[in-house]
Amino acid sequence: MNLTPERLIRIQEVVKRRQVGLTVILENVHDTHNIGAVMRSCDAVGIHEIFVLYSEPQLSEDRLTLGKRTSAGTRKWVDVHFFRDRQACFDAVHKDYPTVRCAMLSSEATSLYKLDLTQPTALLFGNERDGVTPESSALADGDFYIPMAGMVQSLNISVACAVSLFEAYRQRETVGYYQHNNPAPAEFRSNLLESYLSRQDISNFGKVISPKDEESPLK
Do the domain assignments include residue 89? Predict the structure, then answer.
């Protein structure tokens, strides 16, 4: 794909608004359409990477290359860090996101709207049937819930993720993180711009990075 001046400006603007300190962990999410929808929401709020944990043996890394229609091309712009080992996943997340909040309706859960999502945070979501596993919940720094007024007290995982991320967007927009106050380092932006420019070929999707791979050049 030829890089037009208009396209370059668009990519540069996206890079300026990319957020450090905000990401998503998906644990054992089965539905490829949900994975794609989550990635669209992540791209929309400026997230450049997510973490996917598959601890269930029947789940394969191939799922992350499916659902092209639902992700609507955002897989080119959102990198995926893939793990099978739970502790390794959390260790990797904690390098840049010291706080992990688990989407779970528990007795000690905090309302989404009371979280400070301007601070470096990873939001952990479980699968469509069982939610977050007890083992992963135990590694998180607390649970949160989305307040609801209806008879049903649950949302589809992709919807719950979108609601949560746009609350983070609201908070970060208020403090200027999408404008002059963006805390992303200059080196991060430079590396990200270089990486995005290399993805102009429509066949060059965003990376799926597993522990056996070389470390992401954005780190």
Answer: yes
Order across the sheet with 49-53: list the strands. 110-111, 143-145, 99-103, 121-125, 22-27, 49-53, 79-83, 208-209
Across-strand partners of 53? 27, 83
Cβ density class 55-83: b for 16+ within 10 Å, e for less: eeeebeeebbeebeebbeebbbbbbbbbb
Number of domains in the chain: 1
Quick count: other Cβ atoms within 10 Å of Cβ 86? 16
Query: What is the chain's mean pLDDT, rounded?
Result: 88
Helices (H), strands (E): how many in the chain? 7, 8
* Closest listed residue to residue 196, CA positions, set 8, 36, 20: 8
6-58: pLDDT as tens digits: 999 999 999 999 999 999 999 999 888 899 999 999 999 999 999 999 988 77
Residues 77-90: tens digit of each pLDDT: 999 999 999 999 99
User: How many CB atoms within 10 Å of residue 145?
Assistant: 16
As a whole number of angstroms, the distance between CA 73 and CA 83 comes to 23
Cα diameter, the chain = 54
CATH of the domain at 163: 3.40.1280.10
Q: Where are the alpha helices (DSSP H) in 134-218?
A: 134-139, 157-174, 186-197
